[in-house]
Every structure is written in structure tokens, then in C-alpha cells.
Amino acid sequence: AAARTPPGDLRRFAGSYRWTRNARRSAEKVLSLATDVRVRVRGDSLALEALVPLPAEGWRRVGPLRFERGADGHYLAFREDERGHVSHLFLDIAGDHFAFERVPWTRTPGVQLTLFALPMAVLLSFPVARSAAGAARRLRRAAPAAPHGRRADGPPAIAAHAAALAAAAFTGGTLAVLANARELAYGPTPLLRVVLAVPIALAALSALLVYFAAAAWGRRQWSLPSRLYYTTVAAAAAALVAWLQAYDLLGYHL
């Protein structure tokens, strides 16, 4: 029988591990977020959490870096780097072997999806805020503020178009994946290639948003709250484009 292991000694194994057989330089890279395995300490054993079904509980230590789960023949093993830090996880289930590499907390699915969702939410809030502001002006029967005539409509229109592109890319990408999930194993489908061209236009508009935000501060256009909100929207658009680039979703690696 395996000797009882103090929980504190097991914490070095706890963390997130990502399947090594993932795309590194293509649009399928984003799918790697769904392959993470989370290792947690449960008393004197380890537990696994993942989107795919895995033997979850009862992994008990039988060696310095090896764990087994009863007599079912499965094993869990870890690898240390040259500094003695746990760097990899190896899992054997019914003769199938899987290798995972440890990822820092900044690359875990929860953090990465938050870095996507927050700027997306801020960007999509602009059309709603713009419509609400227009409705409020109509209720007050006041003319909209336009410090430089019709040219003042340009920056808000750019932000509205950027929000529309972001919504189109997200909706189109989701539909493309759901409609052709099996075909994605062989590369991007024609529909996904079209969808991935949309973020390129979004990148161009985000550059304009940053320019207009900087110009608004330099010329003291609009009210202070309006400048702050527009700057936040511009920063969100730039952050979203950076996230898309990090996962090769700008169409460059189709």
C-alpha cells in the first residue's frame, strides 16, 4: 500500500498543465485552452479537473514522481526540470499516453478568457452607450455636442464599426467552429478563413481609435467623462487585437 503523504508535500504538483500536442502557429492554437488539466490536492492524494472525462479522484503517491489510482492500471507521473521544479505531467489511461506541460497562472484558461471577455465587453458597450446618450439628448431636446461640426461624428462612428466587427468575428467564429468541428482537425475551413479576415479590419480600426483618443485629449474635445470612456474603448480594442494576435487569429497563419 502507498504510504500516506503529507498534503504540503503534494502542493508542488498542483497547477495547470496543457496538452503538448497543440497547434503553435495557426488559428487552431486557441483550441489549446480546452486541453488544460488542473491538478489539485485532495487530502493525501491528487485530483484532476478537465473538460474531457478523466479518472478524477484518488491518485495516490507510489513513488517520488509517480501516482496510481487503485488497481485500475492507470498512472500519473511528473517530470522535474534542472532546477527541481515540476514541469510536465504524463498520464496513462488504458494504454493511451498523454503528455502535458505546466503553464503559469497567467496562461490558464480562466485568465486568458477573462483577457478576451473584458475588452470585448467594453468594446460592445459602446453602441449601447451611444444609443443611450442619443436617447437622453432627444429627451432633453438638446442638440448633440459637436466641437468640430460633422467631423465630431467620425470617432464615435469608428468605435461603433469596431464593435460591429468584433461582434461579427466572435459570432462568425463560433458558428464556423460549431458547424465544422470535425473538419477543423485538418485545418481552417473556408468559412473560418473568411471569418479570420475580419480581425484584420478590426486591427486597422483599433489604430484609428487610439489616434482619435489621443487627439481628443490633445485638443480637449468632448467632456472629460466622454474622453475617458472613449480612451477606455480604444484601449479595449487594442487589447482585443493583441489577444487575437497572440492566438494567431488575425488571419496571418491560416
Largest sheet descriptor: 8 strands, antiparallel
User: What is the CA-CA span between the terminal residues?
Assistant: 52 Å
String of helices and strands: HEEEEEEEEHHHHH
The helix count comes to 6
Strand order of the largest sheet: 3-2-1-8-7-6-5-4
Strand element count: 8
Q: What structural class do the secondary elements suggest?
A: alpha+beta
- Rg, please? 25 Å
| Overall pLDDT level | 83
**Helix amount:** 40-55%
The shape, in one word, is: elongated
Name the poorly predicted regions.
1-5, 146-152
Q: Beta-strand percentage?
A: 15-25%
Structure description:
44% of the residues lie in helices and 17% in strands. The protein has 254 residues and is α+β, with helices and mostly antiparallel strands. The protein has an 8-stranded antiparallel beta sheet, with no helix packed on it. A hairpin with a 5-residue loop joins strand 6 and strand 7. Residues 1-5 and 146-152 have low confidence and may be disordered.
Jot down its keywords:
single chain, 254 residues, eight-stranded antiparallel β-sheet, 8 strands
